[in-house]
Amino acid sequence: MTPQDPAFLERLKGIVGPAHVLTEPADLAPFLAEERGRYQGAATVAVRPGSTEEVAAVVAACAEAQVPVVPQGGNTGLVGGAVSEAGEVVLALGRLNRIRALDPAAHTLTAEAGCILADLQGAAEDAGLLFPLSLGAEGSCQIGGNLASNAGGLNVLRYGTARDLCLGLEVVLADGRIWHGLSGLTKDNTGYALKHLFIGAEGTLGIITAAVLKLFPRPTESATALLAVPDLTAALDLLGRARARSGDSVSAFEVMNGFSLEVAVRHLPGARAPLEEPTPWAVLVELATSRPDAPLRPVLETLLEEAFEAGLVSDGVIAESLDQRAALWNLREGIPEAQKPEGGSIKHDVSLPLAAIPEFVAAADAAVDALVPGIRPCTFGHLGDGNLHYNLSQPAGADKDAFLARWEEISARVHDLVVERGGSISAEHGIGQLKVAELERLKPALDMDLMHRLKKALDPDRVLNPGKVVR
Questions:
Q1: pTM of the predicted structure, to 2 decimals
Q2: Contact of 238 with 227, CB cutoff 8 Å
Q3: Is 293 a residue whose pLDDT tops 80?
Q4: Which of 19, 94, 128, 418 is the most buried (most CB within 10 A)?
């Protein structure tokens, strides 16, 4: 059966209502676009269920008809994980947008998969608490997608990834059954931790419809600085000193190479150079605490004095206001957008052991320049947790299409260097379809065998998001 079969469409309309079964090209267009423009969705049907029960009924109908389902949240993914093929149905979860419960005493929030991340942050803030998951797309990404891709973001150093922030899940399985795992328990050793099968699985093993999330005391004070450092070795030294000096109050420790900072200043509206002179590397460090008796500004100032004396920092600026803090963060968060006017960009989301990062960057810079002389590394990321966005801008004046045509060749070289140093080819963006071949090439055979066994056990008919993660 095809998604366009009249009887099938009528069944879907009977489940979610005719208004929420989309077949017109103009209505489908938002669900077929992809953030980076590398892929184009091809589904001819998108379904917008409004409850977990409707999700389950739609999936059951698709399973019975052998029509594959592509779950989609805010559609902000960067690896093609929510892109549909012809003959598939897009299952858009944006109508599942209710906060079911917020328990200040237990520090938990129960939310449906379609809730916008920024809305959950706001709900926690209204309760005097913090939901710390934070990333550039937080105004449009949805928590179900964040969990399905195990999103990282800016606060992983202090609070962990999306996996670490989840206590329980509600999941629709490939046959339409609902797994009710919405436990808010911190301790539960009754067998396998089933929730972890679905977090990071990108909708290939089950469709997340709701989650119990951890909340934290809201920071009452923060201190933020942008610092010029000579190299990544100095940056890592500075990280260790910051954690020790602040009592491990470091909530973020971001790094930017000189080119990434340069393009941010050049292309972001209203951006201004925060440092007097260009720098090989810059670090954005933020300390935060919920303790009212632990002022952080003096701690940061003392740290910087020591860093200057040790030759780790040559220049720096401490944010004197919330506006200045926002301006510094805008430089860091705006790099991906600022890179676009520089032409084609080949992007990598990798993680490495901290000690291996300086040598990896040196080796990778040399390797990619040998492949494409004049290539411009735009390296930035979450140094505190070992995650680098090793993006490569085309040489100035080069042909964009010719440069992007070498994506696989260049990425293979970069990924080889990552794996040789004990790193991962996907730190926080997932595998989707972009990295399936690289995963098969580089992942140990036993790991791949276990992943295929899980897929076969939970989705034997390959109804859920086929072609993503494993194929």
A1: 0.94
A2: yes
A3: no
A4: 418
